[in-house]
Amino acid sequence: MAKAIPRATALENVMFSLTYTIPGLLRGAFATQPKGMDIVAKFDANRRANEFVSKLRVRYGGRSIWTRGPVGPVLLVLSQGDIKRVLSASDHVFSLASPEKVRGLSLFQPASLVLSAGEQRDDRKAFNEFVLAAGDRVHPLADRFLTVIADEMDVLLAGVGVGTLTRSAFDHAFARAARRILFGEAARNDVRLGNLLRALRMEANWLGLRPWRNRRNQALLDRMNAKIRSYAATADSGSLVGMFAGAPKTAKTDPAGQVSHWMMAFDVFGVGIMQALAMLAIHPAKAAEAAEEIRSAEQAHGAGTVAAVTAMPYLKASLLEGLRLWAPVPTLMRVTTEPIDWHGDKLPAGTNVMIPASLHHRNPQLAYADRFAPEAWISGEAGDDWWINPFSRGRGQCPGASLALLVGPAVLAALLRDRRVELLEPEIRAGRPLPLTINASKLRFGVHLAGPAAPAEPVPEARQAEAGASTEPSQG
Ligand code: HEM
């Protein structure tokens, strides 16, 4: 018997917009707006949204529901089974190129994989996967990239000394590293390139509602693409653009057209690293575990080597936790390209499908929802759980994930080697449930030389009850 997809009531639509959609627009869909971020962090908007979505899950028995978004009906995915179904489906049927992504991303990555369809998407996907070494492969330029990271983190730390590490100082250092990885040595100080992208991303936040700026936007895009093409033509052999010559490609690929997405992704990536550092800073026992891992991996394999970094599962898990707790890609959007049977009802072609990943990552059903639990990744529990998708999954999975999971721990190791970091701002305490919204642009750390002993770590009350007074990581 056909079962109609439930519809949210008018009040529920308003509540969802107020707690999730509008705060998402305020903080910036394509580039963070610091002032908007401040407001949503102050009200911990995601906590309110999570409480509301938890009620919807109960009210509709875990079924996905029709809601009304700003541009029409949206299927809000509320169950683990439906997340799995959408993310495991064909990327041609559940396309990544949802209308608001087309509206925003086409300003600065009109030829990117995300916005491509049909054969062109398959073609560009193969190219992206080759150059980024997607899947479980270690990137062929991994040695080179780790040298770049070591250099730039050395420069950063020499500037910080025993003092304060700000987001802005980190961002500059990480952007230099990113430009060297993407384009090679000549791009190291090309700050203008990032500024062009930033201006276009800020404009993308307006979702195409300022058509009078089209000519200016096109001029910015042309300037950015000219720079990208000129670096690609130089093809520094130690960079990603240096791999273009050997990559599978056809007339449809547009190799240089793929790169502005990668540049944006490196920004997202930097946020994730800083969030993981913040968590290690407020959990001294876990920081001590990370420090011990760095010491023993580097003693066995040499500092900054690929072998050492791949022997740092705890740092990798910490990075993944930073991405789970405050997902830098908070919403996974899809649009259906053909009618689909959906639990006995039909989704028409053109249905917008929304997975609010940043809320599902904090589903109260997860034992470790609101605490920092690298151990949940070590045990495989978090990685196997379809509620949790920091890199998405299936055909739309991030092809940069394995590169990120190598470079990220290397950055954390460089920052934590022989040092202890203290979180100065914003105020986040380990002993209580972590906020669901933070203003990561405000992260600021005190950097100290590592002392002999880590101070005791506060334990959440719920865990004290479960596990006695132990301060050691549990299995989530
Ligand atoms: C911590 C860092 C990163 C995170 C959390 C992340 C997350 C994601 C997510 C969630 C998606 C899928 C979006 C969706 O399903 O709608 C995605 C796609 C993508 N990411 Fe990443 N990413 C990261 C780093 C990178 C890096 C470093 C690169 C390249 C240098 C990259 C390249 C891409 C590309 C090309 C896609 C499009 C995939 C497609 O259309 O099939 N990402 N990323």
TrEMBL record:
<feature type="region of interest" description="Disordered">
    <location>
        <begin position="453"/>
        <end position="476"/>
    </location>
</feature>
<dbReference type="InterPro" id="IPR001128">
    <property type="entry name" value="Cyt_P450"/>
</dbReference>
<dbReference type="InterPro" id="IPR050121">
    <property type="entry name" value="Cytochrome_P450_monoxygenase"/>
</dbReference>
<dbReference type="GO" id="GO:0020037">
    <property type="term" value="F:heme binding"/>
</dbReference>
<comment type="similarity">
    <text>Belongs to the cytochrome P450 family.</text>
</comment>
<dbReference type="GO" id="GO:0016705">
    <property type="term" value="F:oxidoreductase activity, acting on paired donors, with incorporation or reduction of molecular oxygen"/>
</dbReference>
<dbReference type="Pfam" id="PF00067">
    <property type="entry name" value="p450"/>
</dbReference>
<dbReference type="InterPro" id="IPR036396">
    <property type="entry name" value="Cyt_P450_sf"/>
</dbReference>
<feature type="compositionally biased region" description="Low complexity">
    <location>
        <begin position="453"/>
        <end position="467"/>
    </location>
</feature>
<dbReference type="GO" id="GO:0004497">
    <property type="term" value="F:monooxygenase activity"/>
</dbReference>
<dbReference type="GO" id="GO:0005506">
    <property type="term" value="F:iron ion binding"/>
</dbReference>
<protein>
    <recommendedName>
        <fullName>Cytochrome P450</fullName>
    </recommendedName>
</protein>
